[in-house]
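Continuing the series of single-chain predictions for the mutant panel. This is the parent chain; the variants come on the following pages.
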Amino acid sequence: MDDPFDAGAGSLLRQPKAVWATAGASVVAFMGIGLVDPILPSIAQGLDATASQVSLLFTSYFLITAIAMLVTGFVSSRIGGKKTLLLGLALVVVFAGLAGTSNSVAELVGFRAGWGLGNALFVSTALAVIVGAAAGGSAAAILLYESALGLGMACGPLLGALLGDASWRYPFFGTAFLMAVGFLCITAFLKEQPRPARKTSLLDPIKALGHGGLASAAVSAFFYNYTFFTVLAFTPFVLNMTPYKSGAVFFAWGVLLAVFSVVVAPRMQERFGSLKVLGGSLVLLAVDVLVLGYGNHTAAIVCTILSGAFIGVNNTVYTELALGVSDAPRPVASAGYNFVRWFAAAAAPFFAPKIEEWTDIHIPFVVAAVTAVLGAVVVVVRRKSLTLPHSRTRSSGGTPIAEEPEPRNATEDSVTVSAN
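Parent structure:
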């Protein structure tokens, strides 16, 4: 596999303004996922809510995101990439701003749901737009997008901590402001993208899941995402730190996620093969969350940060599998895959604190470890389905990734990914 940095080294930083505008807005969009992490205890205190109630901020966000996966392709194939981006940004600006005005946890959960819809419309279209507008080919474009994802996941908790130390409301207002800036930049610098020759139906992503390989990748990712979002949504209550300290922990977590996603994972795939890397990383993540749940406070901090490395590797490999394992158009395959896995992102924040209430603080991490192992079991049992049979492939660390014919336009066959 070619080194992703070599592929776009000459032109990676020499991109049109439209690319930088979209990539910059993508950073802020991904910041919104982890933004509330360091302020969850503050929100619970400020709104007199329990941990399980506040965790619904993630549940409502990702439940709507999952359902919206069936809608984003339908919308973008009809109104175009630029208008879809702007619609998503506008919704985030409105609902993030409203979230900052909430007077009850129910209002805040509802506004996060609207935020999730806007974020789904934006991030599911952003990479397709970047691929269409970037200089240096799709390798450079995907590298830019992955870098934006990692930077956003790292900086979200940091911004939440810096603004949330004064008030839990300020991070929401800050996000609304930054997304408004992104809206203006995309309006000014991004030209309208060509629409695909064929419009996407609402059922196309569901039909794509009829492929055994794509369904296997989606089911494995479903189990993995439960583990991922147990760490992201439940750990802040276990750490029980000030916003600054919690933000620093999750910033370090995000840095590891970014580095291992963009730099380490491709090299590991090159050496060991994608399926071995994914299975091994899932098992190591299971061990990590068990130690997180049963260790002392220092061990919990270290394991929270370390989980970012495994999560970064998993995100990269799962994305490649979802995009290359079936013969469905990549945006449709990605939408079906994300439709399944985001339901786990909605379930984990709801069930983890409930499980604690029913048992004790350790058991949510036991469940998270079991789901990570189940994800690895699916990879092992379905390994033949997860290896491409196509003859036109390029090596991606042992797992072939389909090479599709040149697209008729940039939007039609571009990759569509949602927050890995």
